[in-house]
Amino acid sequence: MPELPEVEVVRQGLAAHVVGRTVSDVQLTGARVARRHAAGPDDLAARVRHTQVVDARRRGKYLWLVLAGPAGDRSALLLHLGMSGQLLVQPADAPDERHLHARFDFADDGPQLRFVDQRTFGGMALAELDADGIPDSISHIAPDPFEPVYDRRAVIERLKARHSAVKRGLLDQGVVSGVGNIYADEALWRAQVHGGRASDSLTRPVLGRVLDHAREVMGEALAQGGTSFDALYVNVNGASGYFDRSLAAYGQEGRPCPRCGTPIRREAFMNRSSFSCPRCQPATRAPKF
DNA sequence: CTTTTCTCCTGTATGC
DNA sequence: TGCATACAGGAGAAAA
User: Fold this and answer.
1) Is A272 a catalytic residue?
2) A259 vs A280: CA distance, rounded Å
3) Does residue A238 register a pLDDT over 80?
4) Beta bridge partners of A28
5) CA dihedral in degrees (A243, A245, A250, A255; nearest 10)?
């Protein structure tokens, strides 16, 4: 599942292979891929056609291409990979992928950009950029830990004020963005905090440690993901394939905790799974888990 | 207002 | 072998 590190690798691929090129044609298959674009897929395609891609940017798990129109006007093609979305750079004569939803042709007749998504949780929409260069439609998404505007103290205060499990706060993209289920579990394992513990019951230093570990583990994953980048394949499909061997808790049910050897446990959480060490991350005072 | 639950989707794995 | 079910889960809408 693409979380911040995987999305950043995709962004870097777009920066290398798409920025600077002019779109000559856009083909969208079905309405679902553009469902967040209120004016519909035809409108999106028409507005992207003949624009030049001038930048590829990211906040959390969202990424966007900054588009310059013929008159120099700026807009953004906002993209989200959802759970299974891939952006591929492919030769025009490559056969259609099984779950191909969008195809971009360029005026240089070079390789196409394709959006492929099996589970269709991903999608794209056009947005306007605000004064800070952020698409207006994601103004509710908080900065991620790698942004200069990331305010560590402010995030700690928001977590400190929440009557909810700390893991919910980590996963709330309006509090801090980029963290998904995998890196939330890894950060909590590193911080030796059980994700079900009430956010407002933890001390500020502990909350700070959880946040710092989230940033640290995502940074490590990014460093590894960058090395496996293939020039023709602007995609990283989740943590599998490169960083999964470094995971201490996520998906490791029954395997020994790398720190103390106690078998990692799996618990239901938000109709999903959480993995933690029963010994290093005691679930004391854990409501609503 | 804050917090939680539900829903969208399909390939893969598991159980009977 | 075939069919049913569980699971993966980001994010926004809806509900509590």
Assistant:
1) yes
2) 8
3) no
4) A102
5) 180
The tokens of A175 are what? 């509090």
The residue from A11, A61, A114, A190 that is catalytic is: A61
How many angstroms separate the Cα of A31 from the Cα of each of A40, A44, A75?
7, 11, 21
Is residue A61 among the annotated active site residues?
yes
Give the nucleotide at minimum CA-to-C1' distance from A199. Answer: B3
Per-residue tokens: A230: 């293939």
Give the global pTM: 0.92
Buried b (16+ CB within 10 A) or exposed e, A226-260: eeeeeeeebbbbbbeebbeeebbbbbbeeeebeee
Report the C-alpha gap between A235 and A89 in whole angstroms.
9
Q: Identify the pLDDT of residue A284.
A: 67
* pLDDT tens for each residue of A63-85: 999 999 999 999 999 999 998 88
Query: pLDDT (tens digit, 9 = 90+) per residue, A159-201?
Result: 999 999 999 999 999 999 999 999 999 999 999 999 999 999 9
